[in-house]
Amino acid sequence: MLRFVAAVGAAFLSFLEGTGRLALFAGVSLAALLRPPFYPRIILREMVNIGYFSLPVVGLTAIFTGMVLALQSYTGFSRFSAEGAVATVVVLSVTRELGPVISALMVAGRVGAAIAAEIGTMRVTDQIDALTTLSTDPLRYLVLPRLVAGVITLPLLVVAADIIGVFGGYLVGVYKLGFNPQAYLNGTWQRLETVDVVSGLVKAAVFGFIIALLGCYQGYYSRGGAEGVGRATTYAVVSASILILIVDYLITAAFFAR
Amino acid sequence: MTKTEGVPKISVRGLCKAFGRKQVLDRIDIDCASGESLVIIGGSGTGKSVLVKCIVGLLRPEAGSIVIDGVETVGLRRSAREQLMQKFGMLFQGSALFDSLSVWENVAFGLIQGRGVERQAAREVALAKLAAVGLGPEVSVLRPAELSGGMQKRVALARAIAAEPEVIFFDEPTTGLDPIMADVINNLIVKCVRELGATAVSITHDMVSARKMADRIAMLHQGRIVWQGPTAEIDSSRNPYVDQFIHGRADGPIKMEVRAG
After folding, report:
1. What residues of chain B lie within 8 A of the CB of A38, using their CB?
2. pTM score, two decimals?
3. Given a cut of 50, is residue B207 above it in pLDDT?
4. Total domains in the fold of chain B
5. What is the pLDDT of residue A78?
C-alpha cells in the first residue's frame, strides 16, 4: 500500500516538475519579446513553414469534414424533419469547433513533430551550445520566432479551413442532397454570429502557441541521440494534441457556457 | 606558442560537477596564462568536455570558482554572460555547424547575430577566414551536409576564429579524421591561434595533436587533474597514469569505464 502511494506521489511530483519547467520555458522565451534583437526573417520563414505548407493537408481535411458533417446532419435531422438546419449546423460546427480543432491537430502532427525534430537534432549535435558560444540566446533565436509564427499563422489557416469546410458542406448540400443553392447560403449566413468566428480564431491562436511551445520544449530538452529525438517528436505531437483538446473545452466554456 | 606571465587568463579553483550520483569533476584546480595553449588529455568519459563546458558557461558547476580576466564567471547574469561569450570561440567535436545555413553564413553567424555586423561586411570577413583555413569562395555557398568531415572541421575552425576571440576552446578537434587530415587541422589550429595571439584550451585524447598544439598539458582522470606540466616534460613525468595514457597501454592504473559519465 505504502509503495503504491509512493509511486502515485512520485508520478504527481514528476508531473508538477514537468509543468513547472514548461511554464518557465514559456515564460523565459516570451520575456525575450521585451528587448531586441528580434528575428523577423526567421518569423516569416516559420510562418511559411507552418501556414503555407500546411494548407494542402488542412484544406483536404476541412473539405471532407464539411462534406461528412452535411451528410451526417442531413441523415440525422431527417428523422425529425429538421433538414433545413443542415447549413446552420455545418457553419456553426466548422467555425466554432471543427475548423480550429482539426486544423490544429493536423498542424500538430505536421509542424509540431518537425519543430521537435529540428531543435532536438540541434540539441544532440551541439548546435544549440554553438549558438550560445556565438553570443546568441537559443530561446530568443529558436523558440520565440516559432511561438510568434504559431500564434499568427494558425488563425489564418483556420480562416481558410472555415471557408473550405463550409464550401464542402455546400457541395454535398446542393449537389447530393438537392438543397436550393440560395436557400443553403441563406441558412449559412442567417444564424452565423461574429462570436462564432472570433471564438474559433481565439482557439486557433492558443492552439498555435501550444503546438509551437511543445515542439520547441520537447526538442530543446531531448537527449540520447537519434532515439531521444524520435521520442521528443512523439511527445511533442501527443502532448500538444491532448492539450489542444483540454484547452478547447476551456475556451468553449469561457465563450459559450451560460 | 607564446605565453604572457602574470595573472592567469583563466583560473579554475575547486570545481565540482556531478550528474545525478556520478561525480564527473572533483575539486579541479587549473590555470591558463594569457596567450598559452593548454591541452587537457584523458580517456573517454573522464570529464574533459564537462570541464570545458563549465569554463565556457554551457554547464553550471555545483561548487568552485572560474575566474576569467580577474572576473568570477560562475553565476553570471545572462547579459554579463553574453558579453563574456564575445571573448570566446569554440570548435565542437562534431563541428556543430548549422544545417540550415550556408558555409559562409555559418562562419559569419557570430558577427551578424552576436555583434550586429552588417551582412555584406560579415560575408567579406567569412570569406577571408575561410581562405585562412584553406577553403575557397566556391565552398562558401555550399551547405554543411555537402562537405566532408575534414572540410566541416575547417569551416568550424573558421567560425571559431571569425570574431577574433581572446580565448578559443577546441573540443576533440581531430576526432574522426584520418591522420593526414588530422595533421592539417592541427597545423591550422596552431597557425590561427598564433596569428590571433589567443589563449587556447583544447581537449583531446590524440597525443599527436596534444604534442603539436600544447605549451602545457594537464591530464584528467576520474574527475581530477592527476598531472600537469610543460609539453616537453610529459615523457619524463614518472606519473603512472600519464605513462599508461601516452603509450596507449591496456595495463596500468587506468581502468576502462563501461558507462559514459
Report:
1. none
2. 0.89
3. yes
4. 1
5. 87
Residue B168 lies in a domain: no
How far is the CA of B20 from the CAs of A4, B253, B260, B261, in angstroms?
25, 26, 13, 10
A31 touches chain B (CB under 8 A): no
What Å distances lie between residue A46 and A106, B52, B87, CA to CA?
16, 34, 31
Higher-confidence residue of B241 and B5: namely B241
What's the pLDDT score for residue B203? Answer: 94
Which residues of B are less than 8 Å from A134 in CB distance?
85, 109-110, 113-114, 159
* Cβ <8 Å between B114 and A135: yes
The residue extents of the domains of chain A are 36-256
pLDDT score, position B255: 79
Put simply, whether A182 touches B (Cβ < 8 Å) is no
Beta carbons of B85 and A135 less than 8 Å apart: yes
User: CA end-to-end span of chain A, whole Å?
Assistant: 43
**Chain A residue at shortest CA distance from B165:** A134
As a whole number of angstroms, the distance between CA B222 and CA B26 comes to 8
CA distance, residue B58 to nearest chain A CA (Å): 7
Sheet containing strand B71-72, strands side by side = B22-32, B10-19, B63-68, B71-72
Task: Indicate which CATH number applies to the domain containing B243.
Answer: 3.40.50.300
Per-residue confidence band for A181, with pLDDT thresholds at 50, 70 and 90: very high
Residues 104-123 in B contacting A (C-alpha not used; CB under 8 Å): 109-110, 113-116
Tens digits of per-residue pLDDT, A20-75? 999 999 999 999 888 888 899 999 999 999 999 999 999 999 999 999 999 999 99
Host domain of residue B46? 1-84+200-254
Looking at residue B257, its pLDDT comes to 61
Q: How many other CB atoms sit within 10 Å of the CB of residue B143?
A: 15
- Domain for residue B260, yes or no? no
The three grid cell numbers given for residue B237, joined into one nine-digit string: 613525468
Q: Report the residue of chain A nearest B98, measured CA to CA.
A: A127
